[in-house]
Amino acid sequence: MNILVVEDERNLADAIAHIVSEASYAAEAVYDGNAGLRAALSGRYDAIVLDVMLPGMDGREVVHELRRQGVATPVLMLTARTSLSDKVEGLDAGADDYMTKPFEADELLARLRALTRRRGDVMLDEVTFADVTLDLATHDLSCADKTVHLSGKEFEVMRILMSSSSRVVSKQDLLARVWGGSEASENSVEAYVSFLRKKLAHIGSTVQITTLRMLGYRLEVFGA
Ligand code: CA
């Protein structure tokens, strides 16, 4: 499991990362809301520990923006305050759970376990759509007995499309989640979609990435 920690009190951020890594999870810490949002949009994390009071974007704004952009990673919010309104606002913004500082290591780990379990498939090591399977560890895309390896960005684009099932994913959404607001343009998205189309054809899949003008992409299955 890969946990993102967003907390501006560096001692606390590093302590949380330490607790999480002692429990054999991978942890990355960032120290402000904007960096937190950029990291979280990558979709690489199984859960996010997010402080409410942060410089730049605060925790509620970060989780609100994540949800707006379709990132469903479970979020555990931290606050120094105990008021009910804080809790309600955090949950309204899209957080999954709430914890008041200070807290015990065991409580943090128990809540992270509960959050990732709630997601249903923490131990998920592959995603499937129709006749294709994407291995989340090796980045291999396969159909029947044919396999092709995906590069980092191809993998991330394909994972988002597959986990969206047949829903439309916009170019902007892919840009934000895969490129994280860097210099990339929509041309990059188009290029990677074109690589993926070739790879899907190469492994003989019936799955195709359909372009919906002005809307984005979605996976469709064409007659076997
Ligand atoms: Ca703080």
Describe this structure in words.
- By secondary structure, the chain is of the alpha/beta class.
- 42% of the residues lie in helices and 23% in strands.
- It contains eight helices and eleven strands.
- The strands form three sheets. It has a five-stranded parallel sheet, with helices on both faces.
- The chain starts with a strand and ends with a strand.
- The model has no long low-confidence stretch (mean pLDDT 87).
Q: How is the main sheet built?
A: 5 strands, parallel
The percent range for strand residues is: 15-25%
Give the end-to-end Cα distance, rounded to a whole number of Å.
36 Å
- Give Rg in angstroms: 19 Å
Net shape: elongated
Compressed to H and E, one letter per element, the order equals EHEHEHEHEHEEEEHHHEE
Question: What's the helix and strand layout?
Answer:
Blueprint: E1 2-6, H1 10-22, E2 26-30, H2 33-41, E3 47-51, H3 59-68, E4 75-79, H4 84-93, E5 97-100, H5 105-118, E6 126-129, E7 132-135, E8 140-143, E9 146-149, H6 152-163, H7 171-179, H8 186-202, E10 207-212, E11 216-221
This protein binds calcium ion.
